[in-house]
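LAB NOTEBOOK - FOLDING QUEUE
OPERATOR: T.R.
BATCH SIZE: 2
PURPOSE: Compare the predicted structure-token outputs for two unrelated chains run back to back under identical settings.
PRIORITY: normal
REVIEWER: second-year student, initials M.K.

ITEM 1
FIELD SEQUENCE / FIELD STRUCTURE:
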Amino acid sequence: MKNYDPASQNRVVAGYCRKWVSKKSEQSDWVENSNHWNWNSRLEDWINAPDSENEIGSIHAVQGIDLNYVGVIIGKDLTINEKGELVADSENYYDNYGKFKKNDPHPLQFDRFVKNIYYVLLTRGIDGIRVYFEDKKVEKAFKKFMGING
């Protein structure tokens, strides 16, 4: 998300729904068609890092930071279960430093933890927000909840 106004701070952020492979290799963390992005190159003061416009910020990099506009990628760590409920999916959650591990015996706490991450990410934009959903079932449920047709 490029800053077309030098006084504006705009970034793309995401839940920890992808492995951070670029930390130890030259591989990109995010690959969509011919586009390649990496997770944030640093945690502290990421917003002012020279390449941050070309990176995707994690919860660790943007917590407590307000942006003018934010793009939020809602990854496959959130899904819709067989009951039609929005739930966290531990198979698609990759934060090694997060509070919960994949085999944690408290799925409701994990569910709340992941949803709180997205709450933080979705409240970073002061002037606006764009949301991209990797899971089309989540996108459909979101649009229904918001009263958006299509």
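ITEM 2
FIELD SEQUENCE / FIELD STRUCTURE:
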Amino acid sequence: MKYRILLFFCLLWIIVSPFIAEFLIVEKPIAHSDAIVVLSGSATYSERTTQAALLYKNGVSRKIFLTNDGERAGWVESKHKNPAFLELAFEELVSHGVKPEDIEILSPQVNSTLQEAELLARVVEDRQLKSILIVTSAYHTRRVEMIFESKIRNGQMGIISAPTGLQTPSPWFWWLFPMGWKMVIGEYLKMLIFALSLN
């Protein structure tokens, strides 16, 4: 009997777990934007820049903004240093065909998604941008929507997620990886904290 109950809950988890992850994924594509914004993400910079470069190649925008969280990668022997993830993201974009002059690093340095939203709100207002397209990791998009829509009042905002399976575990298998728990459950906790901060 105990094994049947255990089997039932295991099967239930396998069925439910993809929906837990997929709820976090928001897509708001726009055909053209004044700028593509790649949000900082040390563990997932490659999938984000790859997606941004694809949008750039498809003519969605001729400008890419990078935010800077100041984080550094591990030791890279060819560089003889611990490069900043910002540097790696820039190089990744260029390697995918983005012209260096079309990439702009936004300042100042940011330490959270909220600070990124506040920075982008100022950029949109100061430059009178009509639209921006935010690129981030899949499970980050729901919280990005919540935070950015609370800060950016003017102009159109689109959101595109990088495909899962590259650096982000897929919705079906996220629970098999420590990174998946950090991304999925961590996002729910961060959304709760942000929602409580609004009250």
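REVIEWER COMMENT (ITEM 2): Residues 137 and 162 are 5 Å apart (CA to CA).
FOLLOW-UP: none requested
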